[in-house]
Known about the structure:
Elements: H1 2-6, H2 35-55, E1 60-65, H3 71-83, H4 85-90, E2 91-96, H5 100-103, H6 106-110, E3 117-121, E4 128-135, E5 144-149, E6 152-161, E7 164-170, H7 176-184, E8 193-196, H8 198-210, E9 211-223, H9 225-228, E10 239-242, E11 245-247, E12 264-266, E13 269-270, H10 271-280, E14 284-290, H11 291-299, H12 308-318, H13 323-326, E15 327-334
Helix pairs in contact: 2-3, 8-10
Amino acid sequence: MEAALYHPDFGYYARAVQRSGRAGDFFTSVDVGPLFGELLAKQIAEMQRILNSEFRIQNFEIIEAGAGNGRLSADILRALMREAPDTYTATRLHLVETSATARAAHEPTLADCADRLASSSPALPDSFEGVLVANELLDAMPVHQVVMRDDGLHEIYVEGIGDTLVLREGPLSTPRLAEYFTALGTALEPGWRAEVSLAAVDWMREAARKLARGFIILIDYGHEAAELYSVTHSSGTLTSFAGHRSIGPESTATPWLRNPGQQDLTAHVDFTSVRRTAEAEGCTMLGFLDQMYFLLALVTDRLETLSVKERLALKTLVMPGGLGSTVKVMILGKGVGTPKLAGLSSHVRVT
C-alpha cells in the first residue's frame, strides 16, 4: 500500500496533481465546491479569535496536512479574506504534501492568496500555534491487514509470484499489532480480518507533539474501535477506488492487488486509537460528530442567503448515507481549555 500510493515515481498520489473530482477516481467534500472550505473558514476564524483574545497569539498558523494541490486551503483563505480579514492578515499557511507534483501546484492554486503561504513541504512544521486541518488524510495512510485464526493473530502479506501479486499469511511483522488490540480491549473472532494503521497513530502522535497550542480538525471516514473491529466489519474495510467505482473487502478478487499505482486504496480510520494517541500528548477531544451536524451548525446563519447552487452543494455535503454521515469530524484542542465552538453547537452525534 505504501509503494502503490506513495512511491515517488510510480505511486498513485505521486504521479498526479489531483486524483479526485469528476475526472478522477472518487469525490471528496472539496470537489462539491467552495462551500465546504467556506464553512471550515468560519470555524477556523473562531479558533483564531480564541487564540488571539485569550492567549495573545498574533501569528496564527494554518497547517493543511495531505493538502494535495491546495484547493481546500485556497477556498478557506478566500473565505477568510472576505468574511474575516483580521484572521486572514494574521494567517501563515503551511501546506504539507508528499507528492512533489502536487506541491508544484500550490502557488498557482492559491493564486491571489499565495501571499499567505509560508511553506510547502512534505513534513509538518517543527512547532506551530494555530489550527491543523487533515481532510481525508488518515484513511489513505498504509495499513497492516491482520486475520484472526484459531492459533492467534496472523498478518496478511503481499508476495510476488512471477508477474502476479498474491496474498499470504505469516507471523506478525511487529508486536505493536497485537499490542494495539490489547490496548483497545478488543479481541477479533476467528476468521475476522481487520486493518491497523500504525502510520495514522504515529502521524497523530507527531502532530500532537508539534502543536504548541491550538486545534486539530480531522475529517475522515471511520468509526470508534468498538464498531470498526466488530462483526459489522469482520471482512475489514480495505477498499480500492478507480473510475468512481469501489470494490470493497467483501470481494474475493483482492482488487487492491490489481494495477498497483493506478488506483486509490483506502481503509477506515480507527478514531478511538487516534484520539487516545492525541490525548496522551496533551490534547483534549472537543467533539466527534457526523460531518452533517458539524456543517449544519456552521451554515445556520447563512441558510436564507444561499444561492441555488450553494443549496445543492450543501445537500450533497450533509446528505445522510453519503458524505453527511459516512464522513466524521473530530476536533481536538491543546492548551485551549474546552471552548464552545460554533461547529459543535448543534447535535454532537455520530451515526
